[in-house]
Amino acid sequence: MKRFFKNLFDFLISTRATILLLFIFLFSLAIATFIEEKHDTVTAKSIVYNAKWFELLMLLLAVNFIGNIQKYQMHLKEKLPGLLFHSAFIVLIIGGSITRYTGYVGKMHIRQGETSNICYIPEPHLYVQATDGKQNYSVDHPLSLSSFTGNSIHLSIETEAKGVIEIDYKNYIKNAVELIDQNGKVKYVSGEEDDSDVHVLILDVTFNGNKEEVSLLRNPGFNPDYEEIEFINMKLRISFGMRKKELPFSIHLNKFILDNYPGSNIPSSIASEITLIDKRYNLSEDHEVFMNNVLDYDGYRLYQQSYDKDEMGTILSVNYDFYGTWVTYFGYLVLLVGFTLTLFNKNSRYWFLIRKIGQLQSKRRGDNLIQVNWKHIGIVVVSLILAYAGFTYLLKNNEKSARDEHIDKFGRQI
Questions:
Q1: How far apart are alpha carbons 188 and 198 in whole angstroms?
Q2: Which residues contact 268 (CB under 8 A, 6 or more apart)?
Q3: Is the pLDDT of residue 115 over 50?
Q4: What are 139-165's pLDDT values in tens digits?
Q5: Average pLDDT for the chain
Q6: Among the four 178, 199, 256, 401, which has the fewest Cβ within 10 Å?
Q7: Is 45 helix (H, G, I), strand (E, B) or coil?
Q8: Hey, what long-range contacts does 40-43 have (CB within 8 A, 24 or more apart)?
Q9: What's the farthest any 2 CA atoms get from each other in the chain?
């Protein structure tokens, strides 16, 4: 048994395993992109990104990199660039894991003069509220729905002396089209992608042997639309929408400001004058959030995203991934340092290949020909590539700035 695990570990840290794992990783990303294009993001997450096998793949890659560090003794001084290069990928995997399990992106919807600490995360959730007149019951259940994979939902809500409420999955219809049958009842059928953006979740609700079918329309807004079901001695309200998360602080919208270009209805700027309230620290601060002016607080980043049609409410984007972001940034920094040192380390694989190429060229041309300094050529080539990338980046930014300036002038002239 020990020999088996030793052989398994030796294979996991081998070069063949590295190539195999990287191939599976790249192939998985390509498949996920295809699934997201063909179906939706939820399906891609369900099959690839949030799947256990993909997490196992990331773990095996980390083990492979750690094993290679030990196998090739990269802790030695002359192999420091290789150590940094491999360690960077391990740090990036750790940063991605932190983001996967702790980070999220959502939205806050606040009307002018109101205060809110609720963030809506675009992850489907089922909300159930039940009452028997004396006792109230509430359930918040995460959903993973896809038209490509099999879906399964089963909830049981125990009530005091009234029985058990059971909720079971029946059907999920994407791009649903509403029809009226011969009995005058509303039913939903699947349509084409361009026909509708309405998604319908159909559930069977059972209480004390009585079964009712309920169709829930996915609510893309911030206020859930509840469907009501009434049994003997029990009333239920069920909704299907985004996940709600309470933030440790509140935002009060003092005023929403929208400026248009003169003579048009095209917005030139949108801003929200807010008050950040954190009762944990008896904190109350006034801020202004607008495009390119982000509010950073306690690991959260708040951006100005959109607004209500009546211009009396704001929609702020909320991003929480403080630790995952900085760990990932650190990983990219280590990767950059390792890559740079590799270019100047004579013992690296890069210079080994450069010397081999030089030797082959020398043999072909003969000893009497001028020797080519491949080290200098390599540095020049890399420098030209970096210079070209920097020039292209600056050129695009200058074009964008000039274009924005012309648009602004044109808007003012109108």
A1: 10
A2: 259, 260, 261, 408, 411
A3: yes
A4: 888 888 776 777 888 899 888 767 889
A5: 82
A6: 401
A7: helix
A8: 40/146, 40/147, 40/174, 42/124, 42/144, 42/145, 42/146, 43/146, 43/147, 43/148, 43/149
A9: 102
Give the model's pLDDT for residue 413.
Answer: 42
Q: Is the pLDDT of residue 333 over 60?
A: yes
pTM, full prediction: 0.72
List the structure tokens of 145: 């729905």
Comparing C-alpha atoms, which of 336, 331, 247, 257 is closest to residue 289? 257
Per-residue pLDDT tens over the stretch 360-403: 767 766 554 445 555 556 666 666 666 666 656 555 555 444 44
Let me know: does 374 contact 354? Beta carbons within 8 Å: yes
Q: For the chain, first and last CA: distance in Å?
A: 80
Is there a contact between 352 and 375 (Cβ–Cβ < 8 Å)? no
The DSSP bridge partners found for residue 116 are: 251
Give the H/E segment covering residue 137.
Answer: strand 136-142
Burial class (CB in 10 A: 0-12, 13-18, 19+), 200: buried
Q: Are 176 and 200 in contact (CB under 8 A)?
A: yes
Q: Which of 67-71, 129-133, 378-382 is predicted with the least confidence, judged by mean pLDDT?
A: 378-382
H, E, C per residue of 72-111: CCCCCHHHHHHHHHHHHHHHHHHHHHHHHHHCEEEEEEEE
Pairing of β 163-173 and β 136-142: unpaired
Lowest mean pLDDT among 217-231, 262-276, 301-315: 217-231
CA angle in degrees (0–180, nearest 5) for 259-263-264: 65
Q: Residue 320 belongs to what H/E stretch?
A: strand 313-320
Cα(139)–Cα(129) distance, integer angstroms: 7
Determine the 3-state secondary structure of 404 from DSSP.
Answer: helix
What is the identity of the amino acid at 74? M
Q: Specify the pLDDT at position 193.
A: 64
CA–CA dist 6, 48 (Å, integer): 30
Exposed / middle / buried, residue 133 (Cβ in 10 Å: 0-12, 13-18, 19+) = exposed
pLDDT at 240: 87
The one-letter amino acid code at 219 reads N
